[in-house]
Amino acid sequence: MTQLRDVPLTRRRAALALTALAALPLAACGVTEQADFEDGPDSPAAEVPEESDAEQPSPSDGGGEEQQTGADDASGGAPEVIDPADAVDTISYTLPTDEIDGTMTVGLHHLIQRGRTMELLLTYTPEFRESGTFSLWELHGGNHSNVPPALFDRENLKRYDILRDGGTWDSAEIWNSKQAEHKLASGDTQAYWATFAAPEDDIDTINIAIPGAPEFEDVPIAQGAAADDATAEGGE
C-alpha cells in the first residue's frame, strides 16, 4: 500500500500516480437504471449482477501526497503520473460542509470505454482556510454520497452509477477510489478513478455529475482496448 505523509499547506499541486487499469479483466457488465434527474447523482452505486464470474479489480488508493507511485503499466514501463494541470476540463463548487470553508476543483482527465465497462479518471483539489488535512469524505460533510460522480445519458434518460458488488463505501466491493482514507491539505490533489457499465445505447457523449456541482456536459466517450484484449496483446 502506498505510504502517505502530511503535506505542508504551501504545497499547491500534487503529481499523482494511478495504477494502470487496462490489464485488469473488467469483463463484467454492470447494471444501469433509469435516471432520476430531480434527485441528483447521489444514489448508491450500481450493483454488479450476482451471476457475473468475472474477476473484479481492487479499488485504487488514489493517494493524496505530492507524488504517488503506482504499479507499472502492462508494457512494463513507468507508472502513469496524473497531473491536475493536464485535465481537459474542470468544475468548481463550494465544499458542502459547515465545518470547512473552501472550494473543490474537479478535473476531468478521461472517460474510456473498455469492452463492457467505462473507466473515468478525475482529480479532486480542495482549497480551504483551515491548516489541517482532511479526506474527501470530511470535505463533503461526512457524507460518502456527496463525493462520487454519476453518468447521465440525458438523450435516453438513463443514469449510470459506479459498479459495486455489495459492500460499503471504501470497501473492496466498490470499483472506485477510497474517499475517507487519504488526507489532503489545501492545494493537494487526489486522483480518483471509477468504473461504470458501458452505455446500453449507441452514444458518443455523456454528462458527468457530482452532487452540488456543475455538470461536465457532452463528455466524449473514448474507445480503448478491452481488458482481456490488452492482456492478450501484452502476453504475445
How is this fold's topology laid out?
Elements: E1 16-18, E2 33-34, E3 46-47, E4 80-82, E5 89-94, E6 102-114, E7 117-128, H1 136-139, E8 150-153, E9 158-160, E10 163-164, E11 190-197, E12 205-209, E13 216-220, E14 222-224, H2 227-235
Parallel strand pairs: 3-10, 6-14
Antiparallel strand pairs: 1-4, 2-9, 5-6, 6-7, 7-11, 8-9, 8-12, 12-13
Portion of residues within helices: under 10%
- Secondary-structure element order, N to C: EEEEEEEHEEEEEEEH
Percent strand equals 25-35%
Biggest β-sheet description: 5 strands, antiparallel
Q: Name the strands of the widest sheet in spatial order.
A: 2-9-8-12-13
Structure report:
This is DUF5067 domain-containing protein. Residues 33-82 are annotated as: Disordered. Keywords: Signal. Residues 1-22 form the signal peptide. The protein is mainly beta and 236 residues long. The chain has one domain (16-235). It is 6% helix and 30% strand. The strands form four sheets. Strands 2-9-8-12-13 form a five-stranded antiparallel beta sheet, with no helix packed on it. A hairpin with a 2-residue loop joins strand 6 and strand 7 (117-128). The longest helix is centred in the last third of the chain and has 9 residues, at 227-235. The protein is globular and about 45 Å long. Residues 1-33, 35-44, 49-79 and 230-236 have low confidence and may be disordered.
Give structural attributes.
single chain; 236 residues; mainly beta; five-stranded antiparallel beta sheet; globular; disordered N terminus; disordered C terminus; signal; DUF5067 domain-containing protein
